Every structure is written in structure tokens, then in C-alpha cells.
Amino acid sequence: MEARAIQRTVRHSARKMRLVVDLIRGRPVPEAYAILRFSKKLAAKHIHKVLKSAVANAQQAAQRQNAAFDADGLRVKYAVVNEGPTLKRFTAAAMGRATPILKRTSHVEIHVEAATPTPKAAAAPAPPAPPAPPAPAAKPPKPKAKAKEPAKAAAKGGTKQAKKAAKAGTTRRKEGK
What we know:
Elements: E1 2-10, H1 14-24, H2 29-37, H3 43-64, E2 74-83, E3 87-92, E4 98-103, E5 106-114, H4 152-155, H5 160-168
Antiparallel strand pairs: 1-5, 2-5, 3-4
Helix pairs in contact: 2-3
């Protein structure tokens, strides 16, 4: 059983309403009611009305089909907020100018469906896993090469160039400009 409700041109911006709709999407209806009831956002009141309408539509559909109905067994399947038409107004500004004011509206759409618990298939015993092959023996670490002894100039705290030259085994002399 699926039902939906749409409220069009709500005088609230879609961006602010999406923050609240994201909280209830995919949740059971009683939990969604609780979230909306205790939300500080003003948009929660509008969304609560739409959710209530969707549940009432589901109840009416169940009556038409002469089916059993449980409001607590519903969940929010689909919930979106789209932008509606923007009301454009103007206000006075400095030096005789007019500044535009955009009064945004939005469309709220919520679908609810009966939460059917997924039947768990009888878990057949899995065949035993084949034994894992033995891990290869770890190679012993290579011994670290001993550092070459620096030349006397580098050992005495010479320049960087002298230290590099000592490591390379060559000597460099400074060239004047």
C-alpha cells in the first residue's frame, strides 16, 4: 500500500525545508512524527501537515480496497522539497533606488508505504572453506651497510660542500668570482 501527499507553494524556502525533510526520509511514520514534533525548525510544521495528509490518504486507500490498515506500520518512502514560484517584490533603498526582495516558495511531496519486513531466507550451512595455503617464510632483513667515515674536514664541522665532498670521496675547492 502506497500513498502520497503534495503541498504546493508553501511560503518557505526549499533550502530550509530540505534540512528537515532529510531527517525523516526512510524512517517509520511514528518516528518521523516524533522528529517533526520536537524539531526547532519552523518548516517542520508544514512537513508535519503533509506527512499527516499522506497517512490519511493511505488510510482512505486501505478502506477503498477493504484492506487492513496500521498507521504505525507505515514508513516514509520518498520525501522531497522542490522550489516553487518566487514572488518578486521591491523595497526602497538609498539614493532613490529600489532593491529586489525574493520571497521563495516550495513544493513538498511525501510518499508513505507499508513497511514490509524482509523475510529472512533459511540460512543453509555454508560449505567448509578450503584450508589456506601456508604463508611463505619471511626473508631475513638485510644487514645495513656501514657508513663511510667522513674526511677530517667534514669531521671538524666544515662547510656543507666540504661534507658532501667527504662523503663522495672527492675534494672541491672554492672558485672565486
